[in-house]
Amino acid sequence: MSGEELLRMTATEAVQRLRNREIAPIDLVEASLARIEKVEPAVNAMPTLCAERARAHARQLGRTPPAEGRGWLGGLPVAIKDLIEVEGVRTTYGSSIYPDYVPQRSDILVQHLEARGGIVIGKSNTPEFGAGANTFNEVFGKTLNPWDTRMSCAGSSGGSAVALATGEVWLATGSDLGGSLRTPASFCSVVGLRPSIGRVPVAPPRVPFDDLWVDGPMARTVADLALLLDAIAGLHLADPLSYPAPAESYTAATERRALPARVAFSPDLGISPVDEEVRTLTKAAAERLSELGVAVEEDCPDFSEAPDTFLTLRGAWFVAALEPLYRSHPELLKKDIIWNIEQGLALTPAQIGEARRARGRIFQNMSAFLTKYDLLLCPTACTPPFDVNRRYVEEVAGHRFENYVDWLRLVSAITLTSCPALSLPCGFTASGLPVGLQLVGRPRGEAVLLSAAAALEEALGIAGKTPILPLIRTEPLHA
Fold it and tell me: Which residues are catalytic?
């Protein structure tokens, strides 16, 4: 079987073939490395590889009968975001403070992944410490969108999204504070899930009781994403917020492809301007559910407090996570991180307390709302991919944003609810740029969410459009 044939397989098919011994883990490792060599010059998604480590792991798994310990993934290569530590592999966090850091121990997520048959092939690019919705940093430079290399792949899990879209890997990890996993999925026409807090254990975290930041799976299809979630979810004593995986696998739940009975769709959550093409495409995707017999109503809970609440809690998070580096290496931090930390340092206890109360109200509003509806649907991003040379989106539909996170309201508002949220490809603009639909489930409702997403994915017929070779464009965007 050729490398091209291997790359075009879904992760689910590749794992099944691994279990049947039709292919070997080393075949997939070599196919992945060859594809990376072919497309990396055009996109810069996977700047750090651990080829010999991956080959050694593949040979070890290849000597193990599938039924006796290859694990859930059976020897499938996976990309790890460069915020997640892998033992013996350069991990920079996209920061000039750690350009040559090599951890001596892997993060819990990686430990789970490797124990369950995943092979780390390399590290995917990220903005510095994951701060920013455009993937660039001073260590490795910009990651480009493969659908048009003049465009941003968003961030901060942009490297993972691009690696998936171009076929460098079958699965990848991402992380999400205010949309860092979902927005790149939307911009690159892949699937990304922000899971419930504690669903995927992480350690050693900078803030052990953090209830904003999560790590999560990214893939080309919903079934593949469920496969990776099964491999990384579960209880770990080093993560105080983690809890056991459910008795039924997410893969099994996804295979049911159960349509919801009643969903709500909102084009803007009442808080964000939205590009007209994005509105049209996401509404059409929601209406496709209506054609399948699902009751679809335009509605959403009250998110009016969400933008200010998120900025306050985000600022406090940055103080807890990164203020020591602000004191020790201020000259090496990008200005966006400094702005976040200083915004957090200027907060009063009263402001933080009010933000926490406001988040409680947002959660209660959402909980009540989801007693009426099975899911809430809305655009993942308010705009299609933008010029990669811009730090962030400054204006949409005549509305100017005040700062570099303000344009992410559609995802950051959902972060505050603690509900699982998935970005599903739902179409392309007239110029061929991807658009994603955000599906939000009930608290800890990943199984129902994934099952519904798989059903909608099938109805939309979007799956199978990746992997692609990068579309290299050099003409000016505004000629």
Answer: 81, 156, 180
Residue 432 Ramachandran class (φ > 0 left, ψ -120 to 50 alpha, else beta):
left
Q: Is residue 470 part of a domain?
A: no
The answer to whether 257 and 289 have CB atoms below 8 angstroms apart is no
79's tokens:
């990309």
66 inside domain: yes
Residues 238, 255: Cα–Cα separation, whole Å: 32
Q: Does the residue 473 lie in any domain? A: no
Task: Tell me the residue range of the domain where 278 lies.
Answer: 3-460
Instruction: List per-block mean pLDDT (blocks of 10 residues) for the chain, which spans 479 residues.
Output: 92 95 96 98 98 97 77 95 97 98 96 96 98 96 98 98 98 98 98 97 83 97 98 94 96 96 98 98 97 97 98 97 96 96 98 98 98 98 97 95 95 98 98 98 98 97 94 85
- pLDDT the model gives residue 71: 87
Domain of 450: which CATH number? 3.90.1300.10
Please list, in sequence order, all residues whose beta carbon lies within 8 angstroms of the beta carbon of residue 288, skipping any fewer than 6 positions away.
456, 459, 460
Of 375, 194, 370, the C-alpha closest to 289 is: 375
3-state DSSP call for residue 295? strand
How many structural domains are present in the chain?
1
Residue 73 lies in a domain: yes
